[in-house]
Amino acid sequence: MSKLSLQTIYDEIKQTLQKSGIEIAAYITISYGIQFIVSQNNQSGLIRIYQNKKGQVKYDFSQIKDPLLLQSVQNVTNVSYEKKASPIQQMLSSELIQLKYSL
Predict the structure, then answer these.
(1) Long-range contacts, 52-59 (Cβ 8 Å, 24+)
(2) Could you tell me if residue 1 is inside a domain?
(3) Within-domain flag for 46
(4) Rg, C-alpha atoms of the chain
């Protein structure tokens, strides 16, 4: 399988999102990837796409704060994004579980 360029990936995502009524801005280049703003129904968020030297692509939807926009982007792109708990949230969750089972 050949390595797709970030430009090609962006063009494909742009076409797919626009067909679903999601507006997409031009991308800018960042370290190891690109980023661009998407918007729909007065909500907007930032998508980052990273590609390593092996050609593996990772999508970062963490800057899309509106849950409806995030769901729309995930549905259209078929890319899921699971928000990870912060280290503090993980620690508190772990301590609560231990406390629950120690009682």
Answers:
(1) 55/1, 55/3, 55/4, 57/4, 57/9
(2) no
(3) yes
(4) 17
Q: Is a pLDDT exceeding 50 seen at residue 1?
A: no
> Shortest CA distance to 72 belongs to which of 37, 35, 49, 38?
38
Largest pairwise CA distance in the chain:
56
63 domain residue, yes or no: yes
Q: DSSP string of the chain? A: -PPPPHHHHHHHHHHHHHHTT-EEPPPEEETTEEEEEEEETTEEEEEEEEE-TT--EEEEEEE---HHHHHHHHHHHT---PPPPPHHHHHHHHHHHHHHHH-
pLDDT digits (tens, 9 = 90+) for 60-72: 999 999 999 999 9
Distance from C-alpha of 84 to C-alpha of 91, rounded to nearest angstrom: 13
Token digits for 9? 């990936």
